[in-house]
Amino acid sequence: MSSALLTRARAGDHDAFAELVDPFRRELHLHCYRLLGRLADAEDAVQETLLAAWRGLPEFEGRASVRGWLYRIATHRCLNAIRDAGRRPPLAPMPPFEAPEPTRHHEVPWVQPYPDTLLPEPAYLRREQVELAFVEALQQLPPRQTAALVLCDVLGFPLAEAAELLDTTPTAVKGTLQRARSTLRTRATQPPPADSPAERDLTERFAAAFVADDVDAVIALLTDDAWLAMPPAPHQYVGTAAIAGFLRASAGWRAGRRYTRLPARANGQPAFALYLDAAPAGLVVLTLDGDHVAGVTRFMDDTLYPWFGLPASHR
Question: Residue ranges under compositional bias (Polar residues) (predicted)?
Fold first, then answer.
């Protein structure tokens, strides 16, 4: 960091401040998303972080890195947001048809997908640390455990520095981290390499069968213990029989109307946007395992489309 740049920023130079913080904006947004699980909440937290940083420049002496300073502000903003707002799930949409009884209920229906176009440079990321299942698992930890695990295990902050960021001691962070690691549970999958021919082929075959209501073809591409979730609705269907029952009920309600689709990517995973009668009908994110689909998460939230650069209608 240039001391001259910091001096200019302290003197009220907005361009110097932007030059100081802009290199970290993307990774801060992803950090806030990991802690909060929602795109707009992450955006709000980043804006509050940058405003607090601008106002706090006179107290920043430059002994710590700008990156660490910003992460400290952002982490506390996110923890405050969780404490103030709680984990209230959004209003669950009701299916317009008689749906089968779900297998189980989704524990974190507020989580949204993250557009790959917003991710920082791949060199900063490991795929398993942005995948949807990982973000959902983080939401089920106590907030300070989530913060400690993300700071240390994902971002690589040393224990002592993470303690400074969290205003606590290294011993306390170590204990919090151990509890988080012992609790965190994600299902291990072996997806094809991102954007590989194998990934593209499996995604295309599944999407084509899905929009054509070819339930048998969809089921043939699923693992035996695959699941279907539809956030913000809490319903989940687990296993091929349960998923087939739901898909057939849904297809029957549409009475022959067919979807159209557009490709997308979310959380480092393949995805596609659905349209029914040209209107948005859900963003589908696929969890792949080998040459099968292990999970289908269909986000029933039209506000997601602008985040992914998707049009408001498509025929």
Answer: 180-189
In words, the CATH class of domain 197-307 is alpha beta
- Cis upstream peptide for 100 (omega within 30°): no
Q: Element (H or E) spanning 104, and its range? A: strand 104-105
Tokens standing for residue 301: 């939230």
Which among 223, 222, 310, 228 has a CA at the least distance from the CA of 274?
A: 310
- For residue range 246-279, what is the model confidence (pLDDT) as tens digits? 999 999 888 878 899 999 999 999 999 999 999 9
For residue range 158-196, what is the model confidence (pLDDT) as tens digits? Answer: 999 999 999 999 999 999 999 999 999 888 899 999 999
pTM exceeding 0.90: yes
Q: At what angle do helices 39-56 and 66-85 cross, to 10 degrees?
A: 130
CATH tag for 1-88 (out of 3.40.50.1440, 1.25.40.530, 1.10.1740.10, 3.40.50.300) = 1.10.1740.10
